[in-house]
Write a structure and sequence with these properties.
Largest sheet: 2 strands, antiparallel
Number of domains: 1
Number of helices: 2
Shape: rod-shaped
Distance between the termini: 41 Å
Radius of gyration: 24 Å
Strand order of the largest sheet: 1-2
Oligomer: single chain
Number of strands: 2
Structural class: alpha+beta
């Protein structure tokens, strides 16, 4: 997927499951809290964050590797230009 300037919104759904295992939607939060006040909160919300980033195709960015690649490409272009000039 190519990079595009898009946005997304994270909604929080509160669901109650009754004794018959039937789900009941209680409310939808437009701005759910991502605070982690307990170890369970941290486990659930960190996985939510990872899943969200994967869903919107955010990839890990390695600035050092990107800079090295840019420098290599510049060097190749300089060498290519010098070889054209010597012809």
């Amino acid at each position: 997927m190519t990079h595009k300037n898009n946005c997304f919104e994270l909604l929080g759904y509160d669901v109650l499951i009754d004794s018959d295992l039937k789900p009941w939607l209680m409310e939808v939060n437009l701005s759910p809290s991502l605070a982690t006040e307990s170890p369970l909160d941290l486990k659930i919300k960190s996985q939510l964050f990872i899943d969200t980033m994967n869903l919107i195709s955010v990839k890990k960015y390695d600035r050092r590797r990107d800079n090295i690649t840019k420098m290599k490409n510049r060097f190749k272009n300089i060498m290519r230009a010098k070889s054209y000039q010597s012809r």
